[in-house]
Amino acid sequence: MATNARRRVFAGARARALRLRLELSQPAMARRLGISVSYLSQLESDDRPMTNAVLIAFAREFPRDWADIDPDEEASLLAQAADAVSDPTVAGAPVSDDVLRRAVKQQPLLARRLVAVHAAYRRSQEQVTTLDDAFESGAKDGNPLPWEEVRDWFHNEGNYIDAIDRCAESVAAEIGDSRGSSRTGIEHRLREQHGVTIKWSRTGAPAKALRRFDAASRELAIDHSLPPESHLFLLAHQLMRLEIEETISSVVQGAGLRSQEAFQLLSVGLSNYAAGALLMPYADFRLAARGMRHDIDELRQCFGVSFEQACHRLSTLQRPGVSGIPFFFCRVDMAGNITKRHSATRLQFARFGGACPLWIVHEAVAIPDRILVQLAETPDGVRYMSMAKGLVKPSGSYSRPSRRYAVALGCEIEHASDFVYGDALDLDGARSATPIGVSCRICPRENCDQRAFPPAGRSIVVDPDERAIVPYAFR
Fold this sequence. Notes:
It contains 18 helices and eleven strands. By secondary structure, it is an alpha+beta fold. Among the domains are: 12-124, no CATH class; 146-308, Arc Repressor Mutant, subunit A.
């Protein structure tokens, strides 16, 4: 009898926990894995071990959740190798499960080398993106500006700050409103527990503050010309600054930022985060979003918030064990600059400069108060459903131009059943998706009529006797 036989892998608890976290039924999970419901049930109950074929299926469908499935070296290596050979950004014929199993079994050193090379490739792609970002930003000495540093800090934290979120949820429960916190409840708590007097100021000079708090007199002045949802958010911001000042300070001090300005900006950003969490408490908001299939207009009316606030909050629902759908979210101004961004999906934004001009968000900026939807495909072959809406934020004065921008929210097509905006899209059509990229400088597409720059590291070819829409090719 062979002494090096592979140990049987039982991972039922892990498989069930993953399914529940993704809120998939057993039939839905079984369909994605290509197995029967009864077989999946047996796996989850540990009545049957994981076969190599099932391990590969899990690794391919859930690469971020399954690579470290088991300490058994062969099982882990099989999952990692399946992820490597399934990378859609690497051209070549698909590798069958049987070939992959034999490679791991017979050539484990070669398989480990494949995994290592793939990991190095991914790191190099991330470095190219970072270099493109630095080129676009013009940052000196590689040091980001304070606001860039804070934005990247939120992104690296997954746009979810657990300590802040749970504190806000507790305050919302104490205020006692059924969903979120009402203006009356927040004003009462500010007045009774913090001695704050609220003053509604009129629009004046162009540089007038939207919110101003005098700590000595305990007077909070808010611009009266703002819409009701903005009033509510500014009240919530001030309440949370007072309620959880120590928690915010602790998070800021542990952030490891470079400059005092960055620390101050992060403090403000965390207060804004807390305000959104107070108005849209995690558990209630997540449950309502699922029930409404993430219909933003329904959600904003239910919680008394703005369209943008509801979109932004959806991008923060990443609490471990009870996460929401992995969304990407961004805000784009009239010049195409991305002024807010976060992605819990594989789609990553250019950290500086604009987004791909083929993305629907640019059209939405020019068409306010209308929701546009799009099916897009990135160069790695992943398809995304997205909605975008142009918004106008009135200034309250003729002398102050209104702010115009668009917000976009989207997810991968596997979540189509939970995203109402995907209902009218042909998700499987061969030519139904718009081919988009991240940035022209790192986009490999050769036949894009909207290309602004050739990709970095590629040589351009100019034929003086032939002119296409883009006056060069590259190789």
